[in-house]
Design brief:
Blueprint lengths: L1 E6 L4 H15 L3 E9 L11 H17 L3 E8 L8 H15 L3 E5 L6 H13 L5 H5 L2 E5 L20 E4 L4 H10 L13 H14 L5 E9 L2
Helix pairs in contact: 1-6, 2-6, 3-4, 6-7
């Protein structure tokens, strides 16, 4: 099976579905991770260009830990995705999906706190419309949760993350831990949400919901048989 994970930023893919991606690899699926954002063409107003050299190098190490061979980087300016014209962002995300031709797709949750995540979900959902060739080729679309983004939305005002699919990552959580450890520039000490301990606790909690030692949870956005 061809599997694509669209990540707004480096580390979203590992936080959201690293154990599941490692499981796909172990089961013989073709797995690709596409990171949509980067520094942009000019000088970024917030982050120095060198920060992307660091985090992209970390991402390559993380993908090695997960067993993912295909890692792609695009260059939509991070933290500014919502300022990109919708037609242009749609074109970029469509091109990534056209290149990967996924049968199974992982995307960020549409109601994450981070506006980059929301805009990228919207662009992907344009590409997977069921009347399109890409949409007809997709069997399943899942939204994943990202520590420090998914749980910080405006709860009670807009929909929260309510999973309806759990993937057992008991056998691959060690791979996820190694991948997360690669992101030293992004990790923070516990009790920060972006800590190894928080990722462990979330995996244990999601697993306990379904009688597993460790799990990642998803919202099934679309599925067909």
């Amino acid at each position: 099976m061809r599997v694509l994970c669209i990540a707004p930023h480096c580390d979203d893919e590992t936080l959201g579905c690293g154990g599941t991606l490692a499981r796909h690899v172990a089961e013989g699926d073709e797995v690709t991770v596409a990171v949509v954002t980067g520094p942009g063409e000019g000088e970024h107003p917030v982050f120095p260009r060198s920060s992307w050299d660091t985090v992209r190098a970390e991402a390559r190490v993380a993908m090695d830990a997960l067993g993912v061979r295909e890692l792609w980087f695009d260059n939509v300016p991070a933290a500014m995705v919502s300022e990109v014209p919708a037609h242009e962002l749609n074109r970029i995300v469509h091109a990534l999906m056209e290149r990967a031709r996924p049968e199974l797709l992982y995307v960020p949750h549409p109601f994450d706190l981070h506006r980059d995540h929301r805009a990228i979900f919207d662009a992907a959902s344009v590409a997977w419309r069921p009347v399109s060739e890409l949409g007809r080729g997709l069997r399943e679309v899942y939204a994943y949760e990202v520590l420090s983004e998914t749980a910080w939305n405006a709860g009670g005002i807009e929909p929260g993350f309510v999973p309806n699919v759990w993937v057992d990552i008991s056998a691959t959580f060690e791979h996820k831990q190694r991948a997360l450890t690669a992101y030293q520039s992004q990790l923070r000490p516990f009790p920060d949400a972006r800590s190894l301990e928080a990722a462990l606790h979330l995996a244990r909690y999601r697993g306990a919901q379904m009688g597993m030692h460790a799990a990642e949870a998803f919202v099934l956005v679309r599925g067909r048989r």
